[in-house]
Design goal:
Elements (H helix, E strand, L loop, with lengths): L3 H14 L3 E7 L10 E6 L3 H19 L5 E3 L6 E5 L3 E6 L1 H7 L9 E5 L4
Parallel strand pairs: 2-5
Antiparallel strand pairs: 1-2, 1-6, 3-4, 4-5
Helix pairs in contact: 1-2
Length: 119
């Protein structure tokens, strides 16, 4: 059984595999009213890259953690794709869409971990 923290690590690898940028992990464990334990947020530079990151996350999570998303939304426009893994929500944004919604700031009590970009 994969823990939520292990799943976050696998998802992060999937994002990095496709050069996703500005990865932020929002740890919401212990926050009242939180819809999950973790948000993993990243950016892709084009709709094509956003879609490729989604595919990579899906493949890695299935292969390395035996997990499939419960639901995926936003695939058509690929400006903001949300992937629901129950305890972990993945948000893949185009930079301007990410800036507009500023999802990181919704949970002010949460610990934020920024992952350095892979060159």
């Amino acid at each position: 059984m994969t823990t939520a923290k292990q799943l976050v690590e696998v998802i992060t690898q999937g994002i990095q595999e496709k050069k996703g940028q500005n990865i932020v992990i929002v740890d919401m464990q212990g926050i009242d009213g939180a819809i999950c334990n973790y948000f993993v947020i990243c950016s892709g530079n084009s709709p094509t890259q956003v879609s490729a990151i989604m595919d990579s996350v899906e493949d890695m999570a299935r292969e390395k953690a035996g997990e499939k998303p419960i639901r995926v939304v936003g695939e058509q426009q690929a400006q903001w794709i949300a992937m629901d893994y129950a305890d972990v929500m993945v948000h893949i944004f185009l930079p301007e869409t990410r800036e507009f919604y500023n999802v990181e700031r919704l949970w002010e009590d949460a610990a934020l971990v920024e992952i350095p970009n892979v060159d």
